Amino acid sequence: MKKENKIQRKVWRGKRTRLTLTLHPEIEQIIRKTAQENNLPMSVVADEAIYAGLKKLGWI
After folding, report:
1. 36 lies in which domain range?
2. For position 1, what pLDDT does the model report?
3. What one-character DSSP code corresponds to residue 54?
4. Going along 1-60, which residue ranges are E strands?
5. Statement: the pTM of the whole predicted model exceeds 0.90
6. Alpha carbon of 27 to those of 15, 30, 40: distances in Å?
7. Spatial separation of the C-alpha atoms in residues 33 and 48, rounded to whole Å
8. Are 42 and 7 a contacting pair, CB within 8 Å?
9. Coil, strand, or helix at residue 45?
10. How sure is the predictor about 40, in pLDDT bands with cuts at 50, 70 and 90?
11. Are the C-beta atoms of 38 and 45 separated by less than 8 Å?
12. What's the total number of domains in the chain?
């Protein structure tokens, strides 16, 4: 049975500055696939993944 991962949005999505960066191809594929599966923009998925990672590290 496949575990379903629903993205719980915790990042404020108001007017923000832009950041352009280069991602490892495997990370980009995961973000793209997750965005498609959840019908969300890639930027939302990336924001939430970065937020969750920084929170887990204790940096937020």
Report:
1. 32-57
2. 47
3. H
4. none
5. no
6. 25, 5, 16
7. 14
8. no
9. helix
10. very high
11. yes
12. 1
